[in-house]
Amino acid sequence: MGVIWGIPYLLIKIAVREFTPASLVLVRTGLGALVLLPFALRGDHIRPLIASWRPLLAYTIIEIAVPWLLLNHAELKLSSSVTGLLVASVPLVGALISKFSGDHERMDGRRVVGLLVGIAGVAALVGLDLDQIDLLSVGLVLIVAVCYAVGPRILSNQLRAAPPLGVVAASLSITALIYLPFGVPQLPDEWPSAEVLASVVTLALVCTALAFVVFLALIAEVGPVRATVITYVNPAVAVFLGVTLLDESFTLGTAVGFALILVGSFLATRRTSQAAADATPVAAEAQAGLPRLDSNQ
User: What is the pTM of this model?
Assistant: First the structure.
């Protein structure tokens, strides 16, 4: 999962050479939906979602429809490695949201330090390379980070009983329908190059369809808390691929920002022993609600 969700930034950077941001969202979600929707329908994972269509629509817009478009726009100007590092601030945003939303977990000194360190990392990433970074694109990615922090809260609070595979398949399908009138007219006039086509197909089938299925299996095996470890692997993969395959520069801002963001995220989101113990029944319930990902699905 750390690799699968670390490579989209590289693939997006390649794909937007010939696809517009809207058309890329359409193709990515459309292909992903074509793969997952038959399994979701056969396993009767879509029908239970009808009663929860409002939170499902909200989740779709906040988790997929808006952030994927903004990411595509941002990578027209930003390097894939910088984009990946900025998205790594999601845990920091999540910690801030928890603080001001009345969650039961206390914002102790360690978490406050983590937030400050993480924010310093974002500042270092942008400030030390200010002459090489488009600030508007940075703003777009930070909005993406907010969306990625809010989306799971909708899933946890309002779609907790919904079949996860159904939520993913339905969300991809809804997003594809939303972008259909905008994406189709913007599709490339000529058949994409082999490199771009391979990037788009990999983005849709591996980083979208397969990724969500693997992530559900990962949560079922190790639980939702331990599964978040991939958060600390994704940006490393994004930076490594951007530097080695796209010849993106590994600057002082990248090095300092990378270290501070990861350390800050770890400190700001690491649970105390008591909090982890209190969350155990919740984790077990979440695992029990996951579909079995076997040949019968």
Answer: 0.83
